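forwarding from the other thread:

> can someone predict this with phosphoenolpyruvate?

sure thing
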Amino acid sequence: MRTKLIAANWKMYKTPDQARDFFRDFLPMVQGHDRDEIVVCPTYLALDAAVTAAKGSNVAIGAQDIHWEKDGAFTGEICATMLLAVGATHVIIGHSERRQYFGETDDSVNLKLKSAIEAGLIPIVCVGEVLEERAAGLTDDVLRRQCLRAFHKVSAKKAVSLVVAYEPVWAIGTGKTATPQMAADAHAIIRSETAESFGPEFAAKLRILYGGSVKPENAHALMSEEEIDGALVGGASLDPKSFASIVKY
Ligand code: PEP
């Protein structure tokens, strides 16, 4: 059995003070909840506040991106060792908003994945098709290509902590959710592509999260699918009560 992972992606929301307020309210709501792993990914600036607030709890803290180099002249960027130094344990890589607005490519996702793995961060690699690709029947091809390129020259031995998030771009922040069956089908494609890259044993253990307008109202149906190993939650993770109810689905 794969332990489910429920992750919050706060995007460009919440100051450090607002992060502290969130944890003050959220932690008592999920205290003792050990059925699933819980991760919250605030902005870089709120990481320290979040790590301090969540210390000793059942909630881990992650970042929303990294640069792939160890250090260097890369203005505005943050590397893996800096994330580890503030106590982050996870990192989202290749989110569709990074791909859409900030020029993230399959190749940069690959570099970032390698860097995260080398440093000992748990990577959450996002893949997913846009609406036009789904309408054109290209979902399989897109998911296979994104996985193949992301995993290029990554060794199965080093990638043991890998988590993949299937996030159909048309479902992110739109209120449209993939049906549990659509998500399960996409997860099966990702799992089969992962088996090609890393072998069937690795693929069987891989956790594949679903992301795209997950809400308290649809979390139970989605999480009941055998292929769905957790959720990556944007908008509905900003409110402690709403995120706690997703965690407890
Ligand atoms: C996300 O940001 O990864 C996401 C899935 O957003 P939302 O839940 O708001 O659709």
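The longest helix spans residues 180-198. thats all i got for now
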